[in-house]
Design brief:
This protein has 242 residues and is an alpha+beta fold. The protein has a single domain, classed as 2-Layer Sandwich (Peptide Methionine Sulfoxide Reductase, Chain A). It is built from eight helices and eight strands. The relative contact order is 0.23.
Length: 242
């Protein structure tokens, strides 16, 4: 298990190295595809047209810093909050979740306008650029069940769409290995500590972010240009971590 730092602590000289890593990360995405970033087909089954102004999705794809950072740049997303899902309320804390024994996965609660973007389209972004759905209990340098690929549907319709989409992508052999993403309904979401919110935006020069997460945002911009929003919607700006 990789323990990530809780806050940014860099000596001045370290910023030079971090700047180099940011440039290198951008080159890595263009040359190697930011791990496995790829434009996957949209889901054949999606939500019916909705007049509701707001809906919620909860997704887990490794470190919540990167997943949150990606969806904060998606048009139609009202908020994206880092947190924990899959376990009990009293274990929804970073130190406890990091043991891998709580049942929690680092997750992101995405509130979106279904009149602008559908649940299925969010899942397309999730599978295309937010993480690698073929890695079991890990993402990049982070290992453990808390980094598993999981979807926590809020409604039976979301559960049907998620399951059908996974089956669709597997049948099409979009990925070189089977998708290991689990669909886990009926699980509560608990917001993470304040220092985890907006982490990608607040610490773009931190090497972990530069190497692992900024390329995901770049991939979103390149693969979904019509859905990319340059200015992220931040938790701190709206007091959304509740």
């Amino acid at each position: 298990m990789t323990m990530r730092p809780n806050r940014n602590r860099w000596k001045p000289g370290g910023l030079v190295l971090a700047a180099v890593l940011v440039v290198a990360a951008g080159f890595y995405w263009r040359s190697a595809g930011a791990e496995t970033a790829r434009l996957v087909p949209p889901p054949m089954l999606d939500e019916t047209a909705s007049t509701a102004a707001s809906e919620t999705a909860v997704l887990a794809g490794g470190c919540f810093w990167g997943v949150q950072g990606v969806f904060q740049h998606v048009d139609g997303v009202v908020s994206a909050v880092s947190g924990y899902a899959g376990g009990a309320r009293d274990t929804a804390h970073y130190d406890m979740t990091s043991t891998g024994n709580t049942g929690h996965a680092e997750s992101v609660r995405i509130t979106f306008d279904p009149r602008v973007i559908s649940y299925g389209r969010l899942l397309q972004i999730f599978f295309s650029v937010a993480h690698d759905p073929t890695e079991l209990d890990r993402q990049g340098p982070d290992t453990g069940t808390q980094y598993r690929s999981a979807i926590f549907p809020r409604t039976p319709e979301q559960a049907r769409i998620a399951a059908a989409y996974i089956a669709q992508l597997d049948r099409a052999k979009v990925f070189p290995a089977p998708i290991v993403t689990t669909v886990e309904p009926g699980k509560e979401f608990y917001p993470a500590e304040a220092y985890h919110q907006d982490y990608l935006t607040l610490h773009p020069h931190q090497p972990y972010i530069a190497i692992n997460d900024l390329p995901k945002v770049e991939a979103l911009k390149e693969l979904f240009p019509k859905l990319y929003r340059a200015t992220p919607v931040l938790v701190a700006a709206a007091g959304q971590a509740k």
